[in-house]
């Protein structure tokens, strides 16, 4: 009965909100299936935060014909409302992937596995994500360059962050103004609704010696009001910011085909990519590329498509009886993600928690009137923070902290518990006592994990989901760092701003499975980490960018796939090491930079 409610109630809420309060939804009714050319200059596979950017930017060259193929349909109407983001997970706009059973983590999750959200809609994951705009740390990109990738240092990529951005928030400090972009396609705003809890957390950070900062400026350490990829309180996915304007600009040289599952990249006998096969409405179609095929299917989808096409580890391909075009051992390797510790919860006095307000009629009225209030930002999001690192460069943060209002049972256990993937035993023994109480949750997130996993094929059938193994916490240093993160989160919760002013109290009931450990000892928190960590939905690295001397590099610094011609990968899969923050903004940057590199390679000077 609970499971049925968990599937039914979110849909009912969405229908109510859409019917009563959602007006002016953008429509994406330009599917070009019936007017396809036999050949295009460029074919882009995947319409997410990189693919949508690349397709739109290449279409700026009026003489080029560009085809964008997306496996999903148009964005659902509710996707434009930031506060409804949670109901998009495990919907038709999501591939509904799950990880394989994890050996070292996810002990409190059903089957020791977790849902692994990947967008299946025009706009890709930017249509279902949490809309956080975080570029990462300047040291992330300088490190990429030091790893043998010229042109990817911070001073090189900054202009592409600025090119993509239309910053609409307050300039927090005059010296950070230089680092922001104005007038680009991707609108970026501050969270449009402040709460007592948000202000208390910012004050708590100050009490611990941290400033309120712009993390997208020159340095990242501190507490911040989150920046969002929204425009006037509405989601700004790549579908809204890039694809729709490019299609409607009047050149008619960008064709978009939705519900098109690309099953194979085609090669000629010289190992040059010459086109793709895709399935739509039960029929297989072929379309050719005169110049390049660009794979932008994400850190899960891109290695899957490469391997289905014969580009990948020879042994794995032969196991699935796939003809080998080129043996590239790195395809599907170096796969990693930001693991976060979910469920660290504090209770607060009534009136402090904002998440309950999303269910009240005034929330709908406020959003309908001026697109503010709790529906104007992702569910419960309050503050982001980055602490000083205890090891290595102190200003290259090893941890990010997301502060969210509400407890994991703010919905009385009807659907959030199942959506997160917690076992019902955990709900009953650990969280049930919190039902009806207001609170907040802190998620320490590991920014530079050392653990590495894989993406592999389940079979040669393109419709089969891949085997996703992040291999969380396989490196013991990741556990040690997350334990430090837990201790920092507790220190924040114990500040006078939260403990005295909001009555914050940590839910320190022993976690099921860790009762034998000494409470609040390092061994207890290590046990807690192994039980409660899961994905933060930031997969990266599975088509690694690197020099020819790196046997696991898949693409070079211009994102060309090694061993073949006419094929690039452009998305978060090319990151040698994931950035120190949410990955949507750097993926937009990758798309912008790739578009300029492609233009230059074909004799067009970027504007």
Question: What tags apply to this protein structure?
Answer:
single chain; 607 residues; alpha/beta; 7-stranded mixed β-sheet; 15 helices; 26 strands; 27% helix; 18% strand
SSE diagram, text form:
Blueprint: H1 2-21, E1 39-45, H2 51-58, E2 66-69, E3 97-98, E4 115-116, H3 138-146, H4 154-164, E5 165-167, E6 186-190, H5 196-207, E7 222-224, E8 227-228, E9 230-231, E10 234-235, H6 238-247, E11 254-257, E12 261-267, E13 273-280, E14 283-295, H7 298-308, E15 311-312, H8 314-319, E16 326-327, E17 339-341, E18 344-347, H9 361-370, E19 381-386, E20 399-405, H10 416-420, H11 424-431, E21 439-446, E22 454-456, E23 467-469, H12 476-493, H13 496-499, E24 505-506, H14 522-532, E25 533-535, E26 567-569, H15 584-601
Parallel strand pairs: 1-2, 1-14, 2-11, 5-6, 14-26, 15-16
Antiparallel strand pairs: 3-4, 6-8, 7-19, 9-10, 12-13, 13-14, 17-25, 18-21, 18-24, 19-20, 20-21, 22-23
Helix pairs in contact: 2-6, 2-15, 4-15, 12-14
Number of helices: 15
Largest sheet: 7 strands, mixed
In terms of DSSP E residues, the strand content is 15-25%
Poorly predicted regions are: 1-10
Given helix and strand content, the structural type is alpha/beta
Give the tally of β-strands.
26
Distance between the termini: 58 Å
**Overall residue-averaged pLDDT value:** 93
The value of Rg in angstroms is 23 Å
Shape descriptor reads globular
- Helix proportion range: 25-40%
């Amino acid at each position: 009965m609970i499971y049925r409610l968990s599937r039914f109630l979110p849909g009912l809420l969405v229908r109510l909100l859409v019917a009563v309060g959602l007006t002016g939804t953008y429509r994406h009714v330009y599917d070009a299936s019936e007017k396809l050319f036999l050949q295009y200059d460029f074919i882009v596979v995947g319409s997410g935060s990189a693919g949508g950017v690349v397709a739109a930017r290449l279409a700026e060259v009026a003489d080029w014909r560009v085809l964008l193929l997306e496996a999903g349909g148009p964005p659902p109407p509710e996707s434009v409302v930031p506060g409804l983001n949670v109901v998009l997970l495990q919907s038709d706009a999501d591939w509904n992937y799950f990880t394989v059973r994890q050996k070292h983590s996810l002990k409190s999750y059903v089957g020791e596995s977790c849902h692994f959200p990947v967008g299946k809609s025009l706009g890709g994951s930017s249509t279902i994500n949490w809309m956080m705009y975080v570029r990462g740390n300047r040291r992330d990109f300088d490190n990429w360059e030091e790893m043998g990738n010229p042109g990817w240092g911070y001073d090189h990529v900054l202009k592409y962050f600025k090119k993509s951005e239309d910053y609409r928030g307050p300039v927090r400090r005059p010296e950070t103004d230089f680092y922001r972009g104005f007038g680009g396609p991707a609108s970026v705003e501050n969270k449009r609704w402040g709460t007592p809890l948000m202000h208390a957390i910012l004050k708590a950070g100050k009490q611990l010696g941290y400033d309120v900062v712009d993390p997208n400026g020159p340095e990242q350490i501190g507490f911040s009001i989150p920046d969002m990829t929204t425009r006037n309180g509405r989601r700004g996915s790549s579908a809204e910011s890039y694809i729709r304007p490019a299609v409607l600009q009047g050149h008619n040289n960008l064709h978009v085909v939705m519900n098109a599952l690309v099953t194979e990249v085609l090669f000629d006998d010289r190992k040059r990519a010459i086109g793709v096969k895709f399935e739509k409405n039960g029929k297989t179609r072929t379309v050719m590329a005169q110049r390049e095929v660009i794979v932008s299917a994400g850190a899960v989808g891109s290695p899957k498509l490469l391997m289905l096409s014969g580009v990948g580890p020879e042994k794995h391909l032969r196991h699935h009886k796939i003809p080998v075009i080129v043996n590239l051992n790195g395809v599907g390797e170096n796969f990693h993600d930001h693991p976060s510790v979910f469920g660290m919860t504090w209770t607060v006095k009534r009136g402090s928690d904002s998440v309950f307000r999303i269910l009240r009629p005034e929330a709908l009225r406020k959003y309908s009137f001026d697109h503010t209030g709790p529906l104007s930002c992702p569910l419960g999001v309050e503050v982001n923070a980055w602490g000083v690192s205890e090891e290595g460069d102190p200003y290259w943060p090893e941890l990010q902290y997301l502060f969210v209002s509400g407890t994991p049972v703010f919905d009385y256990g009807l659907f959030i518990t199942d959506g997160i993937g917690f076992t019902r035993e955990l709900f009953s023994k650990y969280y049930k006592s919190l039902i009806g109480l207001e609170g907040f949750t802190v998620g320490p997130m590991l920014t530079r994990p050392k653990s590495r996993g894989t993406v592999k094929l389940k079979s040669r059938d393109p419709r089969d989901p891949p085997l996703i193994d992040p291999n969380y916490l396989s490196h013991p240093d990741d556990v040690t760092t997350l334990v430090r993160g837990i201790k920092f989160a507790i220190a924040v919760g114990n500040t006078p701003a939260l403990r005295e002013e909001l009555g914050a109290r940590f839910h320190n009931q022993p976690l099921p499975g860790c009762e034998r450990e000494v409470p609040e000892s390092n061994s207890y928190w290590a046990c807690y980490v192994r039980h409660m960590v899961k994905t933060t939905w930031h997969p990266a690295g599975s088509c690694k960018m690197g020099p020819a001397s790196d046997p696991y590099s898949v693409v070079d610094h211009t994102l060309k796939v090694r061993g073949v011609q006419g094929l690039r990968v452009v998305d978060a899969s090319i990151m040698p090491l994931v950035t120190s923050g949410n990955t949507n903004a750097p993926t937009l940057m990758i798309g912008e930079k790739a578009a300029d590199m492609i233009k230059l390679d074909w004799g067009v000077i970027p504007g």
